[in-house]
Design brief:
Elements lengths: L1 H7 L4 H35 L4 H36 L1
Length: 88
Amino acid sequence: MGCFTLAEKGHPAAYQYIRISGTFGLTTAFNIWFFGVFCGGWLDERAGTKTVFTLIGVLVGLLFSFFYLYREITIMEKVKKENEEGDK
């Protein structure tokens, strides 16, 4: 009843925020794994360092994830503003 009530009251943006938060979580997990564990671990192994490239990879993964979040919210707000202008 909770989510359907939001849509019935004209708040479909709530679904967009839920979608973005779920996608952000998955994107963050994948980016940390790929850039931090996979790429960073491989570079640490090649360079003979302990965790330098792994930490750099984790930070790069987080940076890409927050860039994705910013881009998605910016697009959603732009569409919302266009829809509001179209209704006037």
